[in-house]
Specification:
- β2 (33-38), α2 and β3 form a beta-alpha-beta unit.
- The chain is of the alpha/beta class.
- It has helices at residues 18-29, 41-55, 69-78, 102-130, 151-171, 189-202, 206-214, 225-235; strands at residues 9-12, 33-38, 59-63, 84-87, 133-138, 176-183, 247-250.
- The two termini are 28 Å apart.
- Helix content is 47%, strand content 14%.
- α1 (18-29) packs across α8, α4 (102-130) runs parallel beside α5 and α6 (189-202) crosses α7.
């Protein structure tokens, strides 16, 4: 399928690996030039070189912490007026309600709510002026079905979801579409981290922890970054112009809900 976005430019955050890398690769396959971001320069530069070689597009790596004002300014300096923005950041650590203090919530909000809001505020005016733009926020299935040990993530991502619900409808008439992708468990470093927590808590092997989690997913497996990236690229395409303010689950059926 021709997505109609060949030659456009995208910012993809947290794109050196995992779901962000999957989104970057899928957009590159559609002919989109990229500015990709992550905190560690080495892996990011390697990812940029690999994506550029594989798909023949321009890929500019910008090593910066997107949760900070300076980091966002550095990324936006590389492409002040992108056609596409994919907001993404690693989730905060798991724990229990009594583990978290105010500072923990502030860090979670900065990374998973306030940073993507700041990026949207920076790029939306130019998108609206040109009459076309796409924003995809990578959030979590927890905004549909909260995960007890991920209270920091539940809170911050739910706040972002509320912001997008209103903002997306304010900009849609200008040809700008904002939507959220809600991943369940995918085969990424985040899944490894969560499974290691189960290993430590239950005294079982990594294979047992993974099998235990996979058994809770109707699809019977973890998702892949390629599957996730394909959906992201579709939401960024010309074909998705009538999709506004939606929260799309990619969880293998793990959230048991009718709507």
């Amino acid at each position: 399928m021709d997505l109609g976005i060949n030659g456009k430019t995208a910012i993809v955050c947290a794109a050196s690996k995992g779901l962000g890398r999957g989104c970057a690769e899928a957009l590159a396959a559609a002919g989109v030039d990229l500015v990709i971001n992550a905190r560690s320069a080495g892996p990011l530069e390697a990812a940029a070189a690999e994506i550029a070689a594989a798909y023949g597009v321009k890929v500019v790596p910008v090593a910066a912490d997107i949760a900070t004002q300076d980091g966002r300014a550095k990324v936006l300096a590389a492409v002040p007026s992108p056609d596409i923005l994919v907001n993404n950041a690693g989730g905060p650590p798991p724990g229990m309600w009594h583990d978290w203090e105010r500072e923990d919530f502030i860090k979670a909000l900065d990374a998973n709510m306030l940073a993507p809001i700041a990026m949207m505020k920076a790029v939306l005016p130019a998108m609206m002026a040109q009459g076309w733009g796409r924003v995809v926020n990578i959030t979590s299935q927890s905004v549909k079905s909260p995960i007890a040990v991920l209270g920091l993530s539940n809170s911050a991502r739910a706040g972002l979801t509320g912001y997008v619900a209103g903002t997306s409808r304010q900009v849609a008439s200008k040809g700008v579409n904002i939507n959220n992708l809600l991943p369940g468990i995918h085969a990424t470093d985040r899944a490894i981290s969560l499974d290691q927590g189960v290993v430590a808590a239950q005294g079982i092997s990594m294979a047992e922890a993974k099998a235990q989690r996979a058994a809770t997913i109707p699809a019977g497996r973890y998702g892949t970054r390629e599957e996730f990236g394909a959906m992201c690229a579709f939401l960024c395409s010309e074909k998705a112009g009538f999709i506004v303010g939606q929260n799309i689950l990619l969880d293998g059926g793990a959230v048991n809900a009718t709507l």
